[in-house]
Each structure stands twice: as structure tokens, then as C-alpha cells.
């Protein structure tokens, strides 16, 4: 208990939450690599099955569920300021797996020249993660319903939510009415929704863990409110993120989204859960330095190699857009369009008739 009678978490709780977050992010990156491998494997064979009918894809999906479950539980033990920036571990693991499964072979000199900045990003991630864990908030409240309600009705949280709602409405107006499909606007919408998501996830996860430990929290109305807000914000966040992936390069989306989401998640944790109230200036500055190091990875790691088939769309979805069911060239290379006379080649016995109907087509 602290001076106000509020029960706080221990160093052991922070360590458990940190390890769960790292473990969960590693599992998620491995699962995405496995699922992407299933797409590539199907595209390289004459197997016309959909990707969701393969054992490889489903094994990756199981890893995704386990990783997200570990991330969900980690919010109950560690502060948001520590858990949110550790998403960089997923980016780092995905990058390393990309190098392992990279098909092309480069000379050492060319490899160092092309991916030197990527390894610089690795150093930033490792150093930043160390600073985050070492100098992050050392304690956090046990998330009983009374503590959550107390924070929710406080004027800092109400002011923060009011500013967030106003900003969200303005961005949504420009996005919907003015057709401003800029990446920054879409990902700011994602980050604003993401801050609500992480706040509610931490509350729901904390109350569920306390309930499992024997202190019933599920019968309080605040649990239902937080659960509904968590589901709704996550759904709308996924929708905006999908739109960003359709309109912009996926590697750029991942990098900018990580920056915005981390900033807003840390800010939300500081305002709502008062995670930095008992920290001194030195710890806050070192923590911010760790955040800057992790955010710097978005620039060098934007050229991370991934498993893809140069310029070819693999396992396309039925909407014709670049979504999860496709593999795109994340290096930003636009696939070259096919010649006009090769886009719809004549089939069967109608080929001669089609050529007669179109004098511009030369017959062999």
C-alpha cells in the first residue's frame, strides 16, 4: 500500500509483464512469418487451395492467438509506458526472420551497403528496450474497479478525452468530407483510437487477473463499459489501418503507425494511470531516451527484407485490394503492368475469331 491506501504492483509484477510482452511480440512476428510462408509456398505450386485451408497458415494463426494473449495479460502486470514501446521487439524479430528467409544472395560488400542502416536500427532497438525496462515506471496501481472509476472522473482524464475527441472529429471530417487520404491523417486516427484501446485493455486485463486471483471485479459496471469500449475501438482501429495499407506502402505504414501508437499510448498511460507521478527527472529523461531510440528504428528498418515474390500478388483477396491475404513488394517497387495484348489472352477456339474481329491484333 502507498500513502493513499492504494495497492501498487511490485518489481516482480513489472518483470512478469515485461517478459510476457517480449514473449508475445516474438510469437506474433513468428506467426506472421509462418503465415506469409504459407502464401509463398502456395504461390510456388499448382495447389489452388485458399491460404486458410492449409495447416501452415493455421499453425501461424495459433501462434498469433498465443502471442496476443501474452500481450493482453502483460498489461495487467506492467505499466503502459513499458509494454507499448516493446512492440519494437516484434519489428526486430520480423526483420531478423526476413534476413533468414531472404531468397536472394548478396555479396558481403553489397549486403553491408544495402542493409547497414538496418543493423543500426537493431542497435537502437536493443539499447532502447534496455533503457525502457531499466528506467520505466517502477510501480503501478492494482486495477480494482474503484481505482479505475477514480481516474476516469478526474479532470486530467476528462480534459485529455475531450481534446482527443475534438482532434478525432476534425481528422475524421478532413478524411471523410475533404477526401484527405494522407497517411499521417489516417494513422493519427488509428493512434487516437489505439490510445483508447490500450487504456481499456489494461483495465479489462487487470480486472480479469484480479478476478482469477480471487477478488471479483466483473460485477462492477465499469468492467462492462471498458470491455465495450475496448472492442469498439479495436474494430474501428483495424478498419482505418486496413484503409492505410490499401492506399500506402505497407512498410511505411508499419513504421509511422509504430511511432504514433507508441507516443499516444505512453501519453495515455501517463495521464490516465499517472504512471510517472513518482518518477524523478533522471528516470523520465532516460526513459524518453529509450523511447527515442526505439522510434528511430522506423527509419532504418523501413528497408527490411521480407518474404515476398518481387512484384507479384500472391493469394489475392476477392476485393482486389492489397490486404492481409496478399503479398506485396514491401520495398516499394511497383509491379510493371502487363502489355495490353497480354492482359486478356484469347482462349480456346475463339482465338481466331477474336483476332478477326480486331484488325489491330496480329495473328501468328
UniProtKB/TrEMBL annotation:
Pfam families in the record: Mg_trans_NIPA (PF05653)
Membrane association type: Multi-pass membrane protein
Domain of life of the organism encoding this protein: Eukaryota
Keywords from the UniProt entry: Membrane, Transmembrane, Transmembrane helix
GO molecular function: magnesium ion transmembrane transporter activity
InterPro entries according to UniProt: EmrE-like, Mg_trans_NIPA
Transmembrane annotation, as ranges: 15-35, 56-76, 82-102, 114-133, 153-175, 182-201, 221-240, 252-275
Similarity-based family: Belongs to the NIPA family.
Official protein name in the record: NIPA like domain containing 3
Organism of origin: Oreochromis niloticus
Gene name of the record: NIPAL3
Amino acid at each position: 500500500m502507498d500513502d493513499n491506501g492504494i495497492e501498487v504492483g511490485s518489481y516482480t509484477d513489472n518483470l512478469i509483464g515485461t517478459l510476457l510482452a517480449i514473449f508475445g511480440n516474438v510469437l506474433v512476428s513468428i506467426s506472421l512469418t509462418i503465415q506469409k510462408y504459407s502464401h509463398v509456398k502456395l504461390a510456388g505450386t499448382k495447389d489452388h487451395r485458399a491460404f486458410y485451408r492449409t495447416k501452415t497458415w493455421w499453425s501461424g494463426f495459433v501462434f498469433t492467438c498465443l502471442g496476443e494473449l501474452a500481450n493482453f495479460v502483460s498489461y495487467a502486470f506492467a505499466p503502459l509506458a513499458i509494454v507499448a514501446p516493446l512492440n519494437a521487439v516484434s519489428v526486430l524479430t520480423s526483420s531478423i526472420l526476413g534476413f533468414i528467409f531472404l531468397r536472394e544472395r548478396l555479396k558481403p560488400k553489397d549486403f553491408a551497403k544495402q542493409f547497414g542502416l538496418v543493423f543500426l536500427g537493431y542497435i537502437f532497438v536493443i539499447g532502447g528496450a534496455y533503457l525502457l525496462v531499466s528506467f520505466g515506471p517502477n510501480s503501478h496501481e492494482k486495477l480494482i474497479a474503484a481505482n479505475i472509476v477514480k481516474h476516469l472522473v478526474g479532470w486530467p482524464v476528462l480534459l485529455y478525452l475531450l481534446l482527443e475527441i475534438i482532434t478525432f472529429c476534425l481528422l475524421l471530417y478532413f478524411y471523410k468530407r475533404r477526401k484527405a487520404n494522407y497517411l499521417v491523417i489516417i494513422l493519427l486516427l488509428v493512434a487516437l483510437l489505439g490510445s483508447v484501446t490500450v487504456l481499456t485493455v489494461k483495465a479489462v486485463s487487470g480486472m480479469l487477473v484480479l478476478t482469477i486471483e480471487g477478488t471479483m471485479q466483473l460485477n462492477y459496471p465499469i468492467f462492462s463499459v471498458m470491455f465495450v469500449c475496448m472492442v469498439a475501438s479495436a474494430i474501428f482501429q483495424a478498419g482505418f489501418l486496413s484503409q492505410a495499407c490499401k492506399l500506402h506502402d505497407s512498410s511505411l505504414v508499419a513504421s509511422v503507425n509504430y511511432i504514433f501508437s507508441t507516443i499516444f499510448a505512453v501519453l495515455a498511460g501517463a495521464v490516465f494511470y499517472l504512471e510517472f507521478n513518482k518518477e524523478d527527472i533522471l528516470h523520465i529523461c532516460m526513459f524518453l531516451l529509450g523511447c527515442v531510440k526505439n522510434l528511430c528504428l522506423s527509419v532504418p528498418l523501413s528497408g527490411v527484407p521480407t518474404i515476398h515474390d518481387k512484384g507479384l500478388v500472391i493469394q489475392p483477396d476477392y476485393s482486389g485490394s492489397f490486404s492481409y491475404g496478399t503479398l506485396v513488394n514491401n520495398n516499394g517497387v511497383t509491379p510493371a503492368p502487363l502489355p495490353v495484348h497480354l492482359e486478356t489472352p484469347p482462349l480456346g477456339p475463339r482465338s481466331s475469331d477474336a483476332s478477326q474481329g480486331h484488325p489491330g491484333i496480329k495473328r501468328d
